[in-house]
Design a protein that fits this description.
This protein is of the alpha/beta class and 327 residues long. It is built from eleven helices and nine strands. The two termini are 38 Å apart.
Amino acid sequence: MLVHGQYGLITLMSEPLISIIIPAFNEQGAIAETVGQITRVDLPAFEILVVDDGSSDNTAANAEAAGARVVRHPYNIGNGAAVKTGIRNARGQVCVFLDGDGQHDPNDIPRLLAHIPRYHMVVGARSRGSETHWHRDLANFVYNKFASFIAEFQIEDLTSGFRAMRREDARRFCDMFPNGFSYPTTSTLAFIRSGRSVRYIPIKTRYRLGKSKIRLIHDGLEFFLIIIKIAMSFSPLRVFIPVASFLFFLGLGRYIYTYFLFGQFTNMSHLLMNSSVIVFMLGLIAEQIASLRLEKGDKLFGVEDETLFHVLSEKYNELESEPRTDR
């Protein structure tokens, strides 16, 4: 099997330690350069896996020529679907995800891997100075605040596609990932709500090569719906309690208003307050269901994990002292 190592492309019988997964759709102008940059990074034995999501250009051919292993979709399914395909085909014990459009600097990969021995997921959070558009920065700010409320955890960059996680954890949750552009959102909230540790590392991104596939308004509205769906899956009381409280106090306010103004109570007041109790009880049931889905808990570190973590700790020990933002 062909595996990349510190001294170039080598042939090994064993599995790679790291799988670098790149979902790509019509990225022929950037994919070869991205793969080439990764091969020059000082990493333990690794593979580069490009998932061609039904491209109509030379994305797959350019990726293979640059040294990547390519898995193809017969037609365009979506970025999240490509990520799931990458996870299912990954051979390494740790999966690193980055975009194939040149936004992410592969030289930041060691900074993510340096913290994998202690954290279940490490995310590259776009910092000031990154080459981004203002409207996306504004949208991400709103997303981060809303998701932080849902997760009860300060989320630095909800939509960053540059992240590293253990393969077993990735496979544990990948069936929950949507087929569209929202896999970072799902993975972030799934890890946090299941009790897994998450760390953010500040990175700087570059303007992508080529035209973005994201439609700002359409995908933005869909994104909020996905966050709410995820909240219902992992932390339903964070949605049900505000709704129940609103109905209760609305009913109570009307109750007091009609009593002092007309000297009587109305059926609407009873209906609103009873509805608040029903909504709250449904929230409790949903919370129990969510707990059952996540009760399997974390996989304990095994012998393979300890060997891998020892390799990463020895190699990137000096990078572990970066400022921390974690759970």
